[in-house]
Amino acid sequence: MNAETVRRQGTLEIKTFSKGREVKRLVECPFCCHTFDDHDPQWKHFLEEHDPENAGLTPLGDGGKSQSPLFEPMDEIPGEFPIQSNNDYRPVAARSD
Length: 97
Fold this sequence. Notes:
Blueprint: E1 5-9, E2 12-16, E3 22-26, H1 42-49
Antiparallel strand pairs: 1-2, 2-3
């Protein structure tokens, strides 16, 4: 199956096939411009050559400090439903009520 069009957008190669399907492949590292071959394990390059800071992230093991908690503390869970015992379970098709 050959692509109808092949175009390059930044570090991506985009192949478009006859039915509109697109396949995107990273052809160059966005951090150091290393060129990937067709079957290069790209994950290995990122793992061995780069740190999270290269992508603007916090260093490994450093969670950073947030300005506020992700969730506010709650006294009770809204919309809480009582738990029914397993003996009350009947498949919908078998209910007669």
